[in-house]
Amino acid sequence: MNPEPSAVLFDLDGTLIDTAPDFVRCLNELRLSHNLEALPDAFIRRSVSNGARAMIRIGFGLEQDQPGYTELHTAFLDLYEAGVAIETRLFPGMESILAALESRNIPWGIVTNKPNRFAAPLIDALGLADRCSTLICPDHVTHRKPHPEALLMACNEISALPELAIYVGDHERDIEAGRNAGMHTIAVRYGYIEEPETVDLWQADQVADTVDHLAKLLQ
User: Fold this and answer.
1) d(CA 184, CA 181)
2) Which end of the chain, N or C, is more open, meaning fewer C-beta atoms within 10 Å of its C-beta?
């Protein structure tokens, strides 16, 4: 791999940004409004990377085709949109990683399965919009990850060669998408990993156990 990557692209939830606190808050608010007890943070946290569908599944035991699902899904998204960055922050240590990339003139961006409706206001609220070289959401492409379309679009937007770029993610589909795009992949074990944890089976080029470990790999 080239010592200086052409770009470093990050998944959003569970990789670059710790969005779990607001997912936890919204799901438990919704449960309480239906006279259900709050669920433990850790139980919700590990499913955050799978989005609102997973929240309704673990919060109410409902799948998409079941009665009541659509109303709960809509209510959850409305709650989340109203407070997308109340408790959400960059993972501790991630600011240093971004600053280091910027100091080396390496563009960084975000490729996420999070809709632009939530992703764009979130990175703006965290003061990242002017620093992020590209933000690619499902709204911008025909195929979601693990299809490589979004990653290739991101590279094209910032004139980065995919084969010299890095994609960092906390889900198997992230690593598969990166491989499909011909990129170097780093799986992060600190993210929202479902049980049983199978990160070492994802065929990532490297695995970062912590944000500090990721910083060392990106050096």
Assistant:
1) 9
2) C
Q: What is the pLDDT of residue 194?
A: 86
**Confidence at residue 49, expressed as pLDDT on a 0 to 100 scale:** 84
State yes or no: is 13 an active-site residue: yes
Residues of the chain with confidence (pLDDT) below 70: 1-3
pTM: 0.93
Selecting among 13, 18, 170, 174, the annotated active-site residue is 13
Q: By CB neighbour count within 10 A (0-12 exposed, 13-18 middle, 19+ buried), where does 203 fall? A: exposed
Q: Could you write out the DSSP letters of every residue in the chain?
A: --SS-SEEEE-TBTTTEE-HHHHHHHHHHHHHHTT-PPPPHHHHHTTGGGHHHHHHHHHH---TTSTTHHHHHHHHHHHHHHTTTSS-EEPTTHHHHHHHHHHTT--EEEE-SS-HHHHHHHHHHTT-TTT-S-EE-GGG-SS-TTSTHHHHHHHHHTT--GGGEEEEESSHHHHHHHHHTT-EEEEETTS-PPSSP-GGGS--SEEESSHHHHHHHH-
Which residues, at least 6 apart from 219, have a Cβ–Cβ distance to it below 8 Å? Answer: 100
Compute the CA torsion angle 108, 112, 116, 117 (nearest 10 deg).
Answer: -120
Instruction: Tell me the domain boundaries of the chain.
Output: 7-19+88-218, 20-82
Q: What is the structure's pLDDT at 175?
A: 98
| The two structure tokens encoding residue 147 | 């299809």
Topology, domain 7-19+88-218? Rossmann fold (3.40.50)
